[in-house]
Amino acid sequence: MGSCMLNLLPTPILVDLNGESAEKSATYISKNFSVSALGVKTDITNKTDVEILYNTVFNKFGRIDGLINNAANNPQMERSQKKRSGADSKTFP
User: What is the per-residue pLDDT for 75?
Assistant: First the structure.
């Protein structure tokens, strides 16, 4: 689905707690799909980080056309959360 979205969204913004990973992914997308991409370190559980992200993107591009939130669909994160909270979670392939 992600590569299909590249045809619709001219500038993907990749957001991750690991800024280096986000930047590497943005570079990969730029090289392999011939689009501009931006990687930004952001903790989406932190309101200030999200506000900074919003301002960075809006000031640079003037608009935000769409959002794909994949933050909760990370099996590693789900396992980590399960261990801490004791909650049951499902891992999808």
Answer: 64
Q: What is the distance, to the nearest Å, from the Cα of residue 17 to the centroid of all Cα atoms in its chain?
A: 9
36 part of a folded domain: yes
Range(s) of the domain holding residue 21: 2-85
How many domains, in total, are found in the chain? 1
CB count within 10 Å of CB 73 equals 10
**CA 22 to centroid of chain Cα atoms:** 7
Residue at 44 is within a domain: yes
Q: CA-to-CA distance for 47 and 10, rounded, in angstroms?
A: 26
Is 73 contained in some domain?
Answer: yes
pLDDT digits (tens, 9 = 90+) for 2-55: 566 555 657 899 999 999 999 999 999 999 988 899 999 999 889 999 999 999
Token pair, residue 69, equals: 């939130």
pTM above 0.70, yes or no: no
